[in-house]
User: Fold these one by one.
Assistant:
Number 1:
Amino acid sequence: MARRIVITSGKGGVGKTTICAFLGMKLADLGFRVVIVDMDIGLNNLDVVLGLDSKVCFDIVDVIAGNCRLKQALVQHPKYPSLYILPSTHSYDEAYITKEQANVVVDSLAQSFDYILIDSPAGVEEGFRRAVYLAREAIVVATPHISSIRDADKVLSILSRYDLLSKYLVVNRIRGDLVATSETLDLDEIVRFLRVKLLGAIPEEDEIAKQAEIGYMNSHSYTRAISLLAENVHNGTRKIYDCSQKYRGFWGILRRNIKRRI
Ligand SMILES: Nc1ncnc2c1ncn2[C@@H]1O[C@H](COP(=O)(O)OP(=O)(O)OP(=O)(O)O)[C@@H](O)[C@H]1O
Ligand SMILES: [Mg+2]
């Protein structure tokens, strides 16, 4: 039976969809059958982020309306054959779906996959509640900024009202150079404030959008961070990527200085 994990946040644009995409690719690479369900209805972009938009024929609303079978709506990733996406629709007004309807679809997916990653919209409105309803576990994504941490705190307290087995935190877009010089919040402070289990730390990486589209990670630090995240999701290894490591010591100071100049 599949693990059903929602990837959510309070603040928008913190990297939920990007993490869904790369975590999905990594879990598929490890041999698991993975489906990412795009529940950001109306503002969805998972297909675009993964470079699969041209392959989308049907979406979750078509499945619910009976316009196609579930299998027909799933889009297989060309590079990771055990990774699929269930796309969402752009036309929110015409395509209202309830959490119960979406749950029937996700229940059917649970038989055929090891992981169901649910890409949630930001905020705590109806779209968020619908996405969380489908899951048994939740990953809250935040960036190391006060506004994002405060929103994550609110979301975590709302998630406590749901019947979830576990709640985790992933901190994304960490500037290792700023961590090394204590110019940004560090992970321990964030975890102490939010009182939640840390599952991953992901560095800021300029070229990430392009890499998701071609299904290839050419940044060593990003690849390592996602690999540790995937291992932690699967085995609970508790290994967290150290985003500031390469900015410490003699060579680290040089790297920091170069990064500041560019
Ligand atoms: N680690 C990272 N380093 C640099 N840029 C990143 C990183 N993660 C995500 N981004 C960029 O941040 C932007 C927002 O990412 P994404 O769409 O994944 O966020 P989101 O939380 O899903 O947004 P929304 O709330 O609108 O659904 C994108 O341009 C993405 O490429
Ligand atoms: Mg998104």
Note: The CA atoms of residues 44 and 201 lie 24 Å apart.
Number 2:
Amino acid sequence: MFRHLFGPVPSRRLGVSLGVDLVKAKSCNLDCVFCECGKTDALSEKRERFKDPAEIKEELREVLGGMTPDYVTFSGAGEPTLSLDLGEIIRWVKGHYPVKVAVITNGLLFSDPEVRKELAAADLVLTKINSVHRDTFDKICRGKPLDLEAFMENMRNFCANFPGKIHLETFIIEGLNDGTREILDLTAYVKTLRIEKWQLNTLARAGAEDWVTPASRQTMERLLKEIIGTGYPADRVEIIGEVREIEGKIEMNEELLKNMREKREYRKEEIEKIFK
Ligand code: SF4
């Protein structure tokens, strides 16, 4: 029985991504209004062991014995860096299988040297910043009061020293962070980060709050144009598109698919793009 793995997920950013959930639903140090996992009832502050690592490895053995996804991705129902087992399991996967590892993180724990060390074993880190303006950041991310300057500095240091690739996501919400001043100030900051790609995203499934609606294509294209207009390299910034269809579709495992659907809603067309 699979309890900790889900998918493989048809991911707009990662292709075929086998999800590993190291935390219990929903454990996060933020409560983002757009979160596809729903609201964070109580913020989690401390790193802890949520699950038995032996069980997670057993499930990984079973799935990776039969398939190689584009990525094994640590994400799920919360913030993976809150798990004390993150580093150990990334290293174990990399030591046993020829597969790339990605971690999706909000970056709050880039301040922790142990977390930075654990993440260093991954091939790709996907992190995010939605605004460099305090009031907008707080409206979107709703966590414990945060020293935004320190957070931005920690992210800059992490990007400068991480040995693998980093993709940065900005989640656009109409009426909150889609203004010209917002995007120009954010661009000035992003230019100081050593990242491979900057990805503009908007709501594709239901978020934590009903009032969050997807930004229009027109808004997303205007923002992209404004970013490129500042001299930001056009080949390093993109709007996240639809899930791509893969060749040689994957055999569906009902249990892994059920786990995936419990985390987020997926449209039938998305599922059909990667499963037989
Ligand atoms: S989007 Fe990520 S960081 Fe924000 S509440 Fe959801 S899991 Fe936490």
Note: The beta strands are 5-11, 15-21, 71-75, 100-104, 124-128, 165-171, 197-201, 237-239.
